[in-house]
Amino acid sequence: MSEMGEIKLLGAAASPFVNRVQFVLNLKSIKYEFMEEDFDNKSELLLTSNPVFKRVPVLIHSNKPPVCESLIIIDYLEETHPDVHKLLPSDPADRAVIRFWAYYIDNEFFPLYGRLRKTPDKEGKEALKKQIIERSQVLEKTFVKFSNGKPYFGGDDVGYLDVVLGCFLGWTKFVGNYNNFKILDEVRQWRNLKLF
Ligand SMILES: N[C@@H](CCC(=O)N[C@@H](CS)C(=O)NCC(=O)O)C(=O)O
Question: What is the structure's pLDDT at 181?
Answer without folding.
Answer: 82
